[in-house]
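B., you asked whether I could sanity-check this one before it goes into the benchmark set. Here's the sequence:
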Amino acid sequence: MSEANLLISTHDGVREIILNRPEKKNALDGQLFSALAEAMQQARQDDDVHVVMLMGAGGNFCSGMDLGGNFDDGSAPFDDCAAAMANFDKPLIAAVDGIAIGGGATIPLHCDVVYVGESLRMRFPFVNLGLVPEFSSSYLLQANIGAQPAAEVMFTAEWINAERAMSLGLASRAYPDSELHSRARAKAEEIAQWPVNALVATKRCLKATHEQPIATAQAIEARLMAEQVGSPENTEAITAFFEKRPPNFRSLKV
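And here's what the prediction gave me:
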């Protein structure tokens, strides 16, 4: 099944969802947010789906927000996608290779198992864009790797390779790119053999203590993101990006 920006297929209880904008390194825009939200909701409601596996086409997972994308319909597509990821109640596996920036780094935080390829170049690029975290990553990153490592990653917007992702605890395993998808698929099939009700119940147990903090983080991120979008520092960061130059934040008035 193909839905333009997504490639969707199901085999032996495993629903594969592939971000399919390879020419944009699978950058996220309003249409892709909406499509991904719908795909996650459909997978949740389909009793034949026991596990969902997320991947990116063309050797990259996701390059984050498409800065030239169409967001005429406002924040609704993003909000729908964030809710669908946070509320998904079946095992969720991500196979992350190549570029994983912004949403490409924060979406995997909602996944139960994350495998990375040797080509991984991950980044949480929010402060350097004059913005704040998204997808409840301000909570989930701390919950996954600890408060101080999370602060370092967020405040520096450092690039993270496969080895660093493993040492931080952002990934369960690292594989050669040529093996990544097949290894993740094999693990998904192993999990999918079990009864779906038991899988859902187990995930509920695992996520119960995180539900309220995730919702709280999403709310404060949304409020502060609205304040930062279009701010002088955000404008300078975007302008510098398109002009292919380093941003000059020190010249801005506070």
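One thing to flag: The chain is about 45% helix and 15% strand. Otherwise nothing jumped out at me.
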